[in-house]
Amino acid sequence: MSSKSLRFEGIFAIAVMLGGGAGPKRRQEDGSRMTLIHPQASANISVSHSGCVTKLNAVLHAEGAQKGALTLFITCNPHHSLHASVLHFINAVKTLRFPTSGSPPLNVSGGYLPQVDFSLDLGQCYLRGNVGKMTSSQTEAVQPSLIVNVTSHCPLLQGTILPQSLALQGLLSVTSCQVTMKSSLRADDEDVSLELIQSCMTPHLSGTITHSFHGLKSQGLPQIISMEAMGPKGSDQAGAVIIKIGRCKIRARRTSQDRRIAHWLWALETDCPVLQAHVNGSVWKHPGGMWTAAMETDLKGRRAFLRVDAKPQPELSVEAVLDHDSPALRALPKSIKLRLSSSSGVHDAEVLVQMEECSLRASGGVMSEPGLQVSLLYNNNCTTIQELGSPNSMQASGSLLLSPASVYSHIFIVKDGKELHTVLTARQTEDQNEAFLNLKHSMPLLRKLGLPVNASLAINSESHNNGSCSFAFNSSAGNQKFSQEFKMEKKLENVRVQSQLKHTVNYLKNLGVPRSYNFQAELGFAEGKIVSLQSQCGDQQAGLRLHLKSFPVLKEMRGTMWHNSSWLHHHGLPLKIEGLGSIKGALSQLQSRAQLSVDGHKLLISGLNVSVADGHLAVLLSYSPTPLNQTRTQHRLDTVLTVQFKGPLRSTSLDIHPQDWRFRLAGEAGGWGTRGGTKEARFTLRHTEHGKTSPAFQVEAWGRLTESELKGSMVVNPELSSSFALIVQGHNSTPRKDLMVNVVHSIPQMLVYLPSQLNLRSQVNQSQSSVAALVELLSGRKKLCAQGELAAIESGYRQTVEVKHSCPQLKPLPRTIAVRTVYEARTWSYLIQQAAVWGSHEFSLSGLYSSPPSLELGNQTLMVQIGGFPRLSSLEMVHESSLHGRLDSILLGWKRQGQVEQVRALSSWSHSEETNETKLELKHPFSSMLSQLSIHILSHSSQRKRSSRHRTHLSWSGVVPVNITLNLNKLNSNVGRACVLVSAQWMAVSSGRGCVSMVQTNLRDHLEHRVELGVCPEQPTLWWSGSHRVISGEELFYTESHLSVPGQLHQSSFTLALTNSSTAQGTNISLYTQSMVGNWSLELESSALSWPHRSGLQVQATLDHSQKIWLNGTLEGHCLRTTAGYMNGSGICEDLSAAVCAGNNHNLRMDVQRREGCRESKTLGSLSLEIANQRLIMKASGCLERLTAAEERFHSLSSQIQKDLMERIKTLQHLLTETIKQSADSRLPQEWSSVPLLVLKQAEALHALQDRGLLSLWLRSSLRHTLTSSLPNFLGQLQQASLLGQQELRRPLATLAGVYQDVKGQRLEAAWKEAVVMWTERLVDVLRAELENPNLRTLSLAGVIALRAALDVACQQTYHWAETRLAMALSGVRKRLASLYKFIPR
């Protein structure tokens, strides 16, 4: 480290336990005191410093959770910056309305003009600001510009005189010949701006002030104030000053000059009605360098004179005299004298203000050598100025001495005999930094603000080349002191860290912080590694010591932890804990041990011994916890594990010995790990309870295995009187294998699931072509036997499985179950036979499939026979297929009740160059209606003519034979013809036809057709033609159909179109339908529209192109509007509209209007709800006459529309009736016409029920009754109650008297008179002696009568006075009640 630079690196951490030393007595004494945090709390503080970076972190924990945090970060690279954040969750602090978080960052960059960025966050409030420079590229170092931006926002200031949001912006630009200053201030929604520009090319100064403050405007200050001053370029040119305030303009200009001396005369011109005064002024320069300015004004005979003398060299001196008798200057004394002098040598200045009877003098000086020194002297004997808060006398001095390694500063102030003295010193050396601050004062204001009269602060830090460092912090305020010391020492063998805290601060005492706290940590390297931690918090101590040894053969760790805290001991932490752990040797020969002691008691002892070479493993574990109290017995657990895993005989043993029982496990195995020979194993498990010789649970097992024999047994004795035995024997000899298992037990709990004796025998025999197996299970007389065989035959295989049993548990199954399967694969046939026995039932299945390789040998045949069905003796199916003749047949036959029944299906197919023919036939006995069904399809196509014909014939025979023929002719790619011929025995009708004479389509989006429908013999023919399109331009779907009957004038058509006219700005989808019958028509049109902030729906119906009914609905923002209207060709146009709007400022409005002639609108009703200033305002209006007129008009229009519809319905009924009469001999047209005729009759019946229409429902609805009757009556009653309440509040005592009369049944005046009479009678009884005296009787009676009269008069006057005062006090309530509700019935 060089001598010119100092670098301090270090980190220290402090863990403080708050309130840890408080014993029970102390907690009882402090129980009534409320603390900010829990008595058991901890604080973690860390400080790190490296180079020019310093970081401080502090975290406060209480009640197991974080209560607060503080972070401070200071750096100087790349510029000076300060970042701090505070976070707390303390409820007591929250009640003081302090924010839970705050962060004030500050950044400062150097340069000609420093740049400062600062920010402060306090909960929901924040303050942002920056002060910086803005320079141009040409004059970067000479012509800087200064920018200031400050913004703040605090919602907590709502309702106060301070603004919630504040924004301040400022700009100062200096160029070679121009200075510009701009600033703006915005407070909430009000702002003010100032702009000043000074130019030196032509002496010129201009400025503008603009504001929008309501308070300033209410005081008469205009929003815009401008000023402009122009100086003369030369001595013979004129100058002027212009000031514009709103509509008022004031001009001042130079009118003349004297060439002999520098003398200027000025005159004032104004067009302001408020200021009409004569002003004369002059300025001249004396030969000695003194300047004199004089001004005289005359306003309505009131004069004012001002004279100023100024001399800039060699010392600045200014004298001014003001004499006036103007009322506008009544705030100033009539005579004032001002003197100002300054000396440039020692930078002294003096100001003297002398008025009529008092004077004010102030002098000061500044010296820069040998440091900065400042002095100030102030005397004032003016009462007026003293009342403004100015002191009578004040003397102040200060100094600042700076050197590369030290700073010294002091301030001394004496104000009206009260003193303030501060001293600040700082010193820096190569390995030490010191700082000292001292403050003393006797000023009442500072004492009231909480500043102690004597306070000091000292900080000292040291760092050494070997890495050792120390830090000390000492502070005092009166008799309260706080000190913090930290020291870190580095040596060759150890590193030691010490921290000490002491204080006498009452606030910390109330929080539970002990007066002293010591912490020490040490890390040693002498013998292994030693870590030692010690802490002392008041009288309580705690420590931790760890000793680590690490050698190639031995690794050991010892640890001790101790404390003397009664609180920790009460919550379960022992006073002393000791532990030991060691590992000796390598992994092939390892010994380890572990030991743990608590308060001198050995809690845990363990040991491990491993020898890989000998194949030996031993483990020892002993656990002995301390009893919870002295009355309970001590528990103990000992465990020993021994394993021998090498050698011909391998063994393991486990011994677990708790306090009340013992568990032992032993096992050994021999012959394992070698090929061949005999392998044998034994296993023993015993569980013995304390004080008993016989084991409570015992398991013994033995087993032997050779190449041809298996033997084993296991005996389990869970109790003294029960046992379980298992014996296994097995033999292996070619080609036979046997296995026998015997189970015998006397355990009652197992008898439910397992019998007391069970024998299992299994046997497997294997040869070259077969495998046979046998499984037999015996339990007393119960037997279960299963055997099976799988054998290979010459061309397949044979499989047999048989199961027999006599067990009651298997009663749902038959006693005998058998399955037999045979499969044979021959030259070109396959045979499978399967038989099954299920008790007394037998089932058989046989299948044969033949597939000759050539057609000469026969057809492909599949034959299936099934026997064993409950109701059928047999079922047979034969399928035969001929590829040569393309003929397939299926025959299904069965016998039921001795009769043979069959189902037969036959299909054939033939093909030539231009002809395809297909035939299908089906015969079955299931339905007499369709006992025989046939289909014949013939297709002919010509490539030369590019045409095709398709004919399909369908017939079936039954009760009613039917023949259906379909002919399709395709003339070209776009035109075709289709006909259907149906013949059946229906009355006199022999057949019917329907032909599509023309079909034209492009197979994409267009289709046109013409269809002829008729019935034979000749009947009226129906023609149906149409045109259809899909997805063509804006049309999504379009269809148009025409129906006509030859010989009738009425023709019908139907049109439907679905279009999409959407664009990028919105969506528009429309649906249009038109129905025409003869000379009348019905059009229906609906549209759905959608824009980014609006959507709507329109529905319109037009009858005979003259009458139109429409319904519109739109949703825009928070408003829903709907309109329903009617229009006809005679000029009638009416509509009814309703609107509901919800505003963003919590208001709601509903309006219902009617418009006649589609021009003038009349309101039927309106309702508005508004929330403002914590008030709910409701306004409602309506007109019953207009509503009744609208209802009558709706009834008239609906009746007219119903009348027109009834005429159309009767016309349709007439047409359908004529059609039925013309086809009286044909049943089919009559059935086709009866359906629409029935629909028209239902429509006619609905029109006849006029009392169930919309109007009748509305007239009978509860909503109309509420709006027209219930709601006005309720509002009228509410208005009467409001007026009555206002009337009663005008005479409140009279109201109370009326209430008293209603409750008591007696007037208040009569009750008062009775009380006065009773009181008078009691007074007469008291004055009985005076009344009996003849001399005093007359005087006493007169006094009693006068007293009663005076009491009545006083009571009446008091009553009237109290009622008047009470009525005045309740006038605000009466006015509020009057403004609360208003109702005007119409």
From TrEMBL:
PANTHER family: AGAP008810-PA, VITELLOGENIN DOMAIN-CONTAINING PROTEIN. This is VWFD domain-containing protein. It comes from Crenichthys baileyi (White River springfish).
